[in-house]
Design goal:
The protein is mostly beta strands and about 150 residues long. The chain has two helices and eleven strands. A hairpin with a 5-residue loop joins strand 6 and strand 7. It is globular and about 50 Å long.
Length: about 150
């Protein structure tokens, strides 16, 4: 029996400015199946390290070059086709450059206190627990019941 399986590898990064603000990307509902405000990130390219992928994606989507991104956890689930989808979650407090939007969506600094008032992407507030709580390292969507994901933190 083979232990190999199909997987989609992606990343997401919480960029903090030290004043209570984070970078949020407003995703276009016409372009993406999940829209709303989310943390920037994207897919890992073939033969690319996870570190290099998050640095590249953040630069492409925000204009910022992050330094010393720290892996804080993962979010994962199985697609309807049975492919495991993994999002590596990073946090970065050091960066250079000027914030700019891209074709991926508008980006802006947002005070974290304002997040509950925003139109956020699916489960974004819950996902932030993995970034904030040192005891958590995984957010797993394990089953669908009546079309809704059952979720668990580890």
């Amino acid at each position: 029996m083979s232990r190999a399986s199909q997987v989609i590898l992606t990343n997401m990064c919480l960029i903090e400015d030290g004043k209570g603000n984070i970078v949020m990307q407003i995703r276009d509902p016409e372009r993406y199946s999940w829209s709303g405000a989310a943390l920037p990130g994207g897919h890992v390219e073939d033969k690319e390290s996870f570190h290099d992928s998050v640095v590249r994606e953040i630069y492409e989507e925000t204009g910022l070059t992050i330094k010393h991104p720290q892996l804080v956890g993962i979010k994962n689930w199985h697609t309807d086709e049975g492919i495991r989808y993994i999002v590596f979650l990073y946090k970065a407090c050091a960066y250079s450059g000027q914030l700019r939007s891209s074709e991926e969506g508008q980006v802006r600094w947002v005070n974290r206190r304002d997040l509950p008032k925003m139109d956020l992407a699916y489960d974004m507030l819950a996902l932030l627990r993995v970034f904030d709580e040192a005891a958590l390292s995984e957010y797993f969507y394990h089953d669908k019941v009546d079309g809704r994901w059952q979720k668990k933190f580890y």
